[in-house]
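Quick bug: Bacterial regulatory protein, Fis family output formatted oddly.
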Amino acid sequence: MPTPADPAGAISAIGDPARRARAAKAAAEDASRLYGELYRKAIKALVEAHGGNRSKAARELGISSQRVGQILGEDDASPSPAGAAYGEPALYFGDEDAADAALRDWALANQELIDRRDPLVRGARMAGLSPRQIRELTDLPLETIERLVAGDIAVAVEVELEVWEAAVEHFADLADAAATREAAYAYRSTGRALAGAIGMVVDGSGRAPALDPAMRGPQWEALSPQAKAELAMTLPVGGDVPETSGEHTLLSWDAWAALYCARLERGTDADTGPMAEAMRHCAAILRHIRIHAALPQEKG
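Here's what came back:
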């Protein structure tokens, strides 16, 4: 389709501002129609290249199959004359503050999904899935997948429960030895969060409570496993399992640790205060455990 050699120059030369504004508006609408038609034809060609499969074309473009249909004019994107609406109605908000708060909550939840996504994609690639297989399952563009798996990637290993339990005790020790209240809080809160993730009972200090005397000694050792379980259920527990969100209880321990590391480091940014340093230290410990299945050898 031919276009003027210099449409912007011709419009700029119009002396009357009102005429210039109308001419610019008309030119913008013409350009929108022109490039919109080129866009539609390109998408149509892509769908045809995929044998008419709109879903595959949509995944390659990073948009939904429904959106492809709307661009090609095959899906009605507007309500019918009878007033029927497609999709869920807009949410009700009493005022702008309520809408703002809801969007902020969504942004936090979306960031957490991204924090979970990146190590998940890297792990899937290291496990042998091809970038195209990952794209089919996640709808992520190939460019994003390749970026996430570029360079040297450390791969987590299976970590025994005993190691995670030892880490909970280690964070409690670090909290007791911390030089500032802020650092102690960072270590203790990380230990309690980990205890909640693995279902470990801890006391107020963040450690496993001491065993009841009835659960020690020759008489205890002589009991059968069933008898031990029945007796343990009748004894008082000197602690509890810290609460964790319902969604996080569905994660593997490794996935939880990866997500928690990302949240710790995102919360520190460029801060150099004692709490930020302790949070980065917590993330480094968790990451070391994920890679080596053992606590790091702390200096000092």
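Actually, after a second look the formatting is fine. Residues 13-71 form one domain. Closing.
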